[in-house]
Design a protein that fits this description.
With 248 residues, the protein is of the alpha/beta class. It contains 8 helices and 7 strands; from the N terminus they run αβαβαβαβαβαβαβα. The strands form 2 sheets. Strands 4-3-5-6-7 form a 5-stranded parallel β-sheet, sandwiched between helices. Strands 1-2 form a two-stranded parallel sheet. The longest helix has 17 residues, at 8-24. Residues 100-247 form the Transcriptional regulator LacI/GalR-like sensor domain. Keywords: DNA-binding, Transcription, Transcription regulation. One of its GO terms (molecular function) is transcription cis-regulatory region binding.
């Protein structure tokens, strides 16, 4: 299991894998504590039958293909490969759902804060949210973290974030990439006199109960069903390990 273990989303995913294994196994797992930005490689000398992983770069893909192991990618982040099937929640659908919810609530100003400090991530969620709001007749502004000087973690850019939040046309509907980003945004608002949700209505694209409980104001969340993602990833890996192809 080459996935991070620090986020609630991934822990729920692991529970889904474990549930499937209890029903269809037994399976013997190799898993180590891992964070979001850690490089994940198969252990030297490991003799397994397959892997569920967060595919982050081509080197990782090449290593898997050299081993000839069946693999299933469960990540939004990093490089995706046609050779390694992916099971994950639908980023585009999450973005459309968020935009539709905000429009129905009567918002006319939209903004997005994505995975700041993660330059390798192809931010489909943010791009699709901008498209969905534009289709509805509105514009979306994004907090940029692409330039070299703006790639630090979000908490190290607090003043720049606060200035950006103040410049938005309030009330603003704000979609955030994950619970850590959402907590930091709400904390910045709370510390600088920006009312949430009156001026900024924050919606998190994933459910993270720990980050939610640590935020000064509770966040609304989109449930991406990581438990189901884990079960379906395990079912697909089981299929691949039995010699069958992934569905087209």
């Amino acid at each position: 299991m080459l996935v991070q273990t620090t986020s609630e989303w991934h822990r729920q995913l692991l529970r889904g894998v474990a549930d499937y294994a209890r029903e269809h196994g037994p399976w013997d797992f190799h898993i180590e504590p891992r964070g979001l930005l850690e490089t994940m490689q198969l252990p030297k000398g490991w003799r397994g039958d397959g892997t569920i992983l967060r595919l982050v770069d081509r080197a990782q893909e090449r290593a898997l293909r050299r081993r000839g192991l069946p693999a299933v990618n469960v990540s939004w982040q990093g490089e995706h490969s046609r050779a390694i099937p992916r099971v994950s929640s639908d980023e585009s659908a999450c973005a459309r759902l968020a935009a539709s919810h905000f429009v129905e609530k009567g918002f006319r100003s939209f903004a997005y804060v994505g995975p700041v400090g993660q330059p390798r991530y192809a931010d489909v969620l943010g791009a699709e949210f901008a498209i969905a709001t534009h289709t509805a007749g509105f514009e979306c502004v994004t907090f940029s973290g692409k330039s070299r000087e703006h790639r630090q973690p979000l908490h190290q850019q607090r003043q720049r974030l606060v200035d950006w939040l103040r410049d938005l046309r309030h009330p603003t509907a704000l979609l955030v990439w994950n619970g850590e980003v959402g907590r930091e945004v709400i904390a910045a608002c709370s510390a600088n006199g920006l009312p949430v949700p009156d001026d900024l209505a924050v919606l998190c694209a994933e459910h993270d109960s720990v980050m939610n409980s640590l935020a000064p104001v509770p966040m609304s969340n989109i449930d991406q069903s990581p438990l189901r993602v884990g079960r379906e990833a395990a079912a697909l890996l089981d299929r691949l390990m039995s010699g069958r192809r992934a569905p087209a």
